[in-house]
Amino acid sequence: MTPNEQYSGGLPPLVPSAPAIDPWNWPPDSGWSPQRNLIGYHVKATDGNVGKIDMATHAQDASYLVVDARRWIFGSTLVVPAGLVSVIDHSEQNVYLICTKELVKSAPPLKPVDGKFTNRPDRDKLARYYRAALSR
């Protein structure tokens, strides 16, 4: 099954030279630090604003952002794997992603279990989605 068959609606356009990602770990040169609180930072895709960070985790192989995207997608909270972050600008409180808004919007949903997004099958599906889309 191709990524386009697996995720209805096809895959949106993205940055042509996007690097391979490790979805659930912060990129080493992103500017992430466990001492910095990212709550309230703006999340920006390559083509515009996604929303504001409600939660950021820093667990090995399980790091992600929970983004309030209600202004963009009515009633939506999105989970963005930390590996999609290209750089964090602490002075402007912006987190920049390596993909488009449409790629984030079209991602398979990740449902919380006990308030955390740790459901392994859903996380694996989300990781496959981003790896397939970003490796094109």
User: Low-confidence runs (pLDDT<50, min 5 residues)?
Assistant: 1-18
Strand order of the largest sheet: 4-3-2-1-6-5
Order of helices and strands: HEEEEEEHH
Rg of Cα set: 14 Å
The overall average pLDDT, rounded, is 83
| CATH class wording | Mainly Beta
Q: What is the number of strand segments?
A: 6
Structural class by SSE content: alpha+beta
Shape designation: globular
Question: How many alpha or pi helices?
Answer: 3
How would a crystallographer describe the biggest sheet?
Answer: 6 strands, mixed
In short:
With 136 residues, this protein is an alpha+beta fold.
Which helices and strands appear, and what pairs or packs with what?
Elements: H1 3-6, E1 42-45, E2 48-56, E3 64-68, E4 77-81, E5 85-89, E6 94-97, H2 101-105, H3 120-134
Parallel strand pairs: 1-6
Antiparallel strand pairs: 1-2, 2-3, 3-4, 5-6
Key phrases:
globular; alpha+beta; 136 residues; SH3 type barrels
Your description of this structure?
The longest helix has 15 residues, at 120-134. With 136 residues, this protein is of the alpha+beta class. Helix content is 18%, strand content 24%. The chain has one domain: PRC-barrel domain (SH3 type barrels, Roll), CATH 2.30.30. Strands 4-3-2-1-6-5 form a 6-stranded mixed beta sheet. The model is unreliable at 1-18 (pLDDT under 50). It has 3 helices and 6 strands, in the order H-E-E-E-E-E-E-H-H.
